[in-house]
Every structure is written in C-alpha cells, then in structure tokens.
Amino acid sequence: MPDAPLRAGFGARLTDAVSRRGPLCVGIDPHPSLLHAWQLGESPQALERFAMTVVEALADRVALLKPQSAFFEVYGSAGVAVLEKVIAESQQAGALVLLDVKRGDIGSTMTAYAMAYLDERAPLAVDAITVSPYLGYGSLAPAIGMAEQNGRGVFVLARTSNPEGVGLQQAVHGSGDTVGQYIVDSAAETNLGKEPMGHVGVVAGATIPAGELDFSDLNGPILAPGLGAQGATVRDLKAVFGRALPHVLPTTSRDVLRHGPEVKSLRDTHARLADEIGHQLND
C-alpha cells in the first residue's frame, strides 16, 4: 500500500492559494533583454539580483510563481544554485512554485526527471512542473504518479500560445479529436473524481480561438500563457475559456517584469493586473 502524501493534494493546495491570492501566475524569466533593461548585465550575480527582486516583490502576494528553468540553466551550476534559492524563498513566503521545464521522455529517464523536481529529497523540488506529452501521454506516468504521491502537480502542454504549435496541436489524433483535445481529455481521465480538482493541469494559451478546446470535464487547472506581450488581453480570457474560467491561471512575465527593478513598481503592476482579472472573473 503506498504511503500517504506528506501534504494535501496539489488541486486542494492550489485552490486554497488562489482563493487567498487570486489566480494570476507571474513568470520569473531572466531574459537577457530584461537583465539589460534593469541595467544588470549578464552574470550569475545579475541573475540572482533579478530573480530575488521578483521573489521579494511578489512571493508573499501571488498564488503561483513560474521560474523558466532555461534562463537559469544557461549560467551552469551557478544559475541552478540561484534557482534553488528562488524556489526555497518563494515557498517560504507562501507562493506555490511551478517550474517551467517542459520535460518529456520515456521510462527510466522520465522517472529521473520526476525525481529531480517532484521527489521530497530533490534540491529542486517544486510544487508543480510543466511536461511535454509528445512522446505519448502515457509516457508521463512516472511524473503524474510521483506528483500525486507527493502532493504536487504537473501541467501538460495541450495547446500552446506559440504559432509553431498550431500544425501539430490541431492535427487529428487517432481518437478522432485534435491532438490538443486528446491531451485535455487524457488529463480529465486522470483527474476523474478528484476533489476539489485533480493534480494534472493543462497548458492552453490565452491566444487560441474561442471554443477550440472543450475543458468541461477537465477537473483541473488551466495555465494560460500569452497575456500581454503575446497579444492576449484580460477580456479574451472569458471568450477563450468560457465556463472553465474559474480554473484558469492567467500567466504573464514580461508585462510585469519590465516594470522593475523597483520592488514597488513590480508590486503596483501586479496589483493593477490582478484587479483587472478579478473584475473580469466576477463580471
């Protein structure tokens, strides 16, 4: 018999965090252009100052922070050390951490990825990760299983906001649905019967056409990138996601981060956007 989780399920923890702090997810993307805009340059020290400023500004007020792993990995072990610090201090301040790593593999390799991010003993253990299903949804079983066992979550790429994804994600799957819909339906099957919702979310861009995907049976969170710099507006959320809107986590990075490096400016921008989203959800 498997051991009981050390914490409540991810669906319950996320629901609680969103109820207290709102649904807006802010990315921590130390892109070179942002580092230069903050007049920091490119170095591990600049990376740390940038990332920890965002943590200081927002980790005590957002439900979910989403570091983009690649922008840390590019600095090697020094960058990964900064990422560990970001994770630890964000969680200490009460934010859930969704690490954007988009991992996808098979067998023992997928198990190793799951252990790297979802195991209790891992230095990079986070509350949830993004995963890629394009070796088959079933290939994600080690991550999905370990996440459930440890009260963590996964967000599966279903219909992303980048234009290059359209041809693949709108292609017809063997099930007769589009690939994107198949991913949503597979996640829904995993989440079936979970309260208040399951631990498997999907990634679906706020820029996709309204009604393209049916989320009615998902019973899980929807990470919605594309807000701001990629063209989606807060008003678009209701049109794209309809009745699934209460489960949507609108996501932005540059539209908040470009207002640094002052902590107050980052907080004011977050508050303004969070209020706008709140009004749209309650309209």
Shape: globular
- The run of helices and strands is HEHHEHHEHEHEHHEEHEHH
What's the count of strands? 8
Please state the CA-atom Rg, rounded to the nearest Å. Answer: 18 Å
What is the makeup of the main sheet? 8 strands, parallel, barrel
Number of continuous helical runs: 12
* First-residue to last-residue Cα separation: 47 Å
Q: What portion of residues is helical?
A: 40-55%
Q: Helix/strand-derived class?
A: alpha/beta
Strand content: 5-15%
pLDDT below 50 for ≥5 consecutive residues: which ranges?
none
**Main sheet strand line-up:** 1-2-3-4-5-6-7-8
Average predicted local confidence, pLDDT = 95
Account of the protein in words:
This protein has 283 residues and is of the alpha/beta class. Helix content is 44%, strand content 14%. The protein has 12 helices and 8 strands. An 8-stranded parallel barrel has the order 1-2-3-4-5-6-7-8, surrounded by 7 helices. Strand 7, helix 10 (234-241) and strand 8 (248-252) form a beta-alpha-beta unit. The longest helix is centred in the last third of the chain and has 20 residues, at 263-282.
